[in-house]
Amino acid sequence: MNTSHMPSSPDHATLDPITLEIVWNGLRSINDETWITIQKSAFSTNIKERHDHSTAIADASGQLVAQAEWSLPIHLASMLGLMQILIERYDDDIHEGDIFIANDPHVAGGTHLPDLALVSPVFVDGNLVSFVANLAHHADVGGAAQGSMSGGMSEIWQEGLRVPVMRLYSRGQLNRELMDILLLNMRLPDERRGDLNAQIAACHLGVERMQALFARYGTNTVTSAFAEILQRTDRRMKAAIAQIPDGSYSFEDVLDDDGLEARDILFKLEVRKKGERIVFDFTGSSRQVPGNVNLTLNAVQSAVCYGLKALLDPELPNNQAAIDAIDIVAPLGSIANCVSPGAVALRANTCQRVVDVVIGALADVLPEQAIGAANGANTSIVFAGVDPATNIPYVYLETLGGGMGGRSDRDGKDGVQVHITNTSNLPIEAIEMEYPLRVDSYGFVENSGGAGTYRGGLGLRRVVRPIGHTCEMNGVGERFRHQPWGIFGGAPGASGRFRMREADGAVDELPPKTGRRRLRPEQAVIVETPGAGGYGKPAERAPEDVARDRQSEKFSIDF
After folding, report:
1. Closest Cα to residue 289, out of 527, 513, 52, 529?
2. pLDDT digits 0-9 by tens, 131-187
């Protein structure tokens, strides 16, 4: 949807700045409260501990107005895509008490199947005035592999249950047949039901809070605020874009592989900027690949929007206007705009590479904002099996952080999620309390940060083994074959890797995309995530910073 078609209101011209700010903070508060509701009510560690979920508010035309402070940037376009299809498909057939559900990347605006999105309309005096939406990454949605996130899948049907935009609740009544179909096709149905109920509760609360906001300030005032928020975001984004020198800028980078047959998958970006308009052109990038690292166009939109915001105006609201200010060219059937039945489960790894090429292309004209390549990987691991103590199946899913790139005035952070993923690392206590697993060690990977005037951050090392049973392990890594590059003379960070440790201490390397491997109790998986690239020439690093690196033991003496 284009911001030029944003609805106007009779009160729009008279909406004073103080009222606008109060309404804006009211929307943020509602988003945050519904986000916390999901976190506190969910059953799975992936949501209640890792916080892999988002909430948002849209206007009556489906334009996303506000996203929760703790939401994930990668979820922005998923909710936008769902809203657009919902409006087009149901139009005048939306009623009070409805809740819609969807996840499919090819027909429902999603980016991968584990992200189940729910949307509820908000009515005031019988009129549709807005929507509340939320999205949560479910630890398993069926498919060929436990956890629905294994590498090497070759078509969307292998990745889990596909859900088009459907009505889960109709006028307040649950569609039990649809819920039964969903749970029947997903592993751990009790956990899935608990997570879905958390999302449903957030929908109910969001509707209640929005109706209270409309009741307090009036429909015209709140809808005027929607329009003003979008228009101000549009003006602010375009003003920031205008500060970039006019010209054409380019950059290239590659994904390691697709888990099947493709290697060195090319992302080629040309950025063309003139005045307030900017075009991100991915022409020349690889065609879509057999493995599940492809992106749908809305996933690319999220990544590009995040990258530009991070460089220009990090405090800019995440909403429809921020995306509409950007033009994207991505040939249909390419890695950046795949077609059905393209497999997409590992889209987060690929989105990270999109962010890298956006930063790389604009680094020379935005040197103070650019950073060295971060771990750019979203390294994921899944352990799944049957708990020998309870005879109940389990699925432990986690994406691990790594190094953040060196910056123009300070070092990169160690062991963090970067860019479009905003999740937490799962605490050891939560893993060992919830699952029959033992974490033998957890810490930083020494020497993994790239040298520079400001060094890159370190990757993480986690060693995990099953207790008293044999389980299945899936691992997906990127930046395992290609190191995260440094910037302005900075050195690259270390690559990541998966290894298997046997009972006798012998250690074997595992592939970057390790799918459905059996893991016995005497074996342990060693996960090492990538570090990050440095910023500036290493010779210009302050001696006291070098000494501190040695003293911390993050770097060895001879590094």
Report:
1. 513
2. 999 999 999 999 999 999 888 899 999 999 999 999 999 999 999 999 999 999 999
pTM reported for the whole predicted model: 0.93
DSSP secondary structure string for all residues of 427-453: PHHHHHHHSSEEEEEEEE-TT-SPPSS
Q: Is the peptide bond before 7 cis (omega within 30 degrees of 0)?
A: no
For residue 170, what are the β-bridge partners?
173
> For 137-184, where are the alpha helices, taking DSSP H only?
176-184
Predicted confidence (pLDDT) per residue in 196-220, tens digit: 999 999 999 999 999 999 999 999 9
Banded model confidence at residue 8, pLDDT cuts 50, 70, 90: very low
DSSP state for residue 541 in the 8-state scheme: S
Q: Which residues pair with 395 in a beta bridge?
A: 384
The C-alpha angle with vertex 537 and arms to 350 and 448, in degrees rounded to 5, equals: 50
Tokens 């040939």 sit at which residue?
A: 331
* Rg value, the chain, Cα: 23
Q: Is 236 helix (H, G, I), strand (E, B) or coil?
A: helix
Does residue 55 contact residue 31 with C-beta atoms inside 8 Å? yes
Please choose, from the candidates 233, 251, 379, the residue with its C-alpha nearest in 3D space to the C-alpha of residue 309. Answer: 233
Classify residue 366 by its DSSP letter: S
CA–CA dist 86, 62 (Å, integer): 8
| Alpha carbons 41 and 201: distance in angstroms, whole number | 8
Q: Give strand ranges (E) for 165-227.
A: 166-170, 173-174
Distance between CA 377 and CA 421 in Å, rounded?
A: 10
Please give the Cα distance from 167 to 90 (Å, whole number).
10
Strand 327-329, strand 277-281: pairing? parallel
Give the angle 282-284-287 at the CA atoms, nearest 5°.
95
Query: What does the alpha-carbon distance between residue 230 and residue 129 come to, in Å, rounded to a whole number?
Result: 16
